[in-house]
């Protein structure tokens, strides 16, 4: 008998009241608040992502610049340790690939005269990723201006203006 009484109590108490749930107005208000939060946060997130890509590209370009011109503050025994491509070969590389593989026109490194190709000057996994910016566009090497350039977020060649990222070497 007691079990039957408990089951009736549970059944009676489990009935939903007609006032249970959310009204349409409450649901619409939640959706409006979520849309307002999204409208404010999405542009900020996009700006954050763009700024992160700009900084990542600048850091890669600084690595390329160090590979080309060396790092003069790295010395051992009063001699430069990291002379870069220019310090070793005595000329600016004609392409970025000269930093990865020895060009045919350049002599191999001679440890007595300290001249010749002593690379690779950049570490690459074979994909050429180090030679592309954060937008997957190849960096541009301008030997005449001694610059490394990324086309920047708009991926358009602005000849060094606009949103292009430019770093000088030498």
Structural commentary:
It contains three helices and five strands. It has 170 residues and is mainly alpha-helical. The longest helix has 46 residues, at 24-69. The N and C termini lie far apart (96 Å). The chain has one domain (26-168). The chain has helices at residues 2-13, 24-69, 84-89, and strands at residues 75-76, 79-80, 140-142, 147-150, 165-168. Strands 3-4-5 form a three-stranded antiparallel β-sheet, covered by helices on one side.
Describe this structure in a few short sentences.
The chain has one domain. The chain has helices at residues 2-13, 24-69, 84-89; strands at 75-76, 79-80, 140-142, 147-150, 165-168. 38% of the residues lie in helices and 9% in strands.
Helix-strand layout with pairing:
Layout: H1 2-13, H2 24-69, E1 75-76, E2 79-80, H3 84-89, E3 140-142, E4 147-150, E5 165-168
Antiparallel strand pairs: 1-2, 3-4, 4-5
């Amino acid at each position: 008998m007691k079990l039957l009484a408990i089951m009736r109590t549970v059944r009676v108490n489990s009935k939903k009241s007609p006032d249970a749930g959310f009204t349409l107005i409450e649901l619409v208000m939640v959706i409006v608040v979520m849309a307002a939060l999204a409208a404010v946060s999405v542009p900020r997130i996009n700006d954050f992502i763009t700024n992160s890509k700009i900084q990542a590209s600048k850091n890669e370009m600084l690595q390329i610049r160090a590979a080309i011109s060396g790092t003069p503050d790295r010395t051992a025994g009063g001699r430069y340790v990291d002379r870069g491509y220019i310090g070793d070969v005595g000329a600016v590389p004609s392409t970025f690939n000269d930093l990865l593989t020895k060009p045919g026109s350049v002599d191999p490194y001679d440890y007595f005269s300290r001249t010749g190709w002593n690379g690779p000057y950049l570490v690459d996994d074979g994909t050429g990723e180090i030679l592309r910016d954060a937008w997957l566009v190849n960096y541009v090497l301008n030997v005449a201006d001694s610059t490394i350039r990324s086309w920047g977020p708009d991926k358009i060649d602005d000849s060094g203006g606009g949103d292009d990222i430019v770093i000088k070497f030498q």
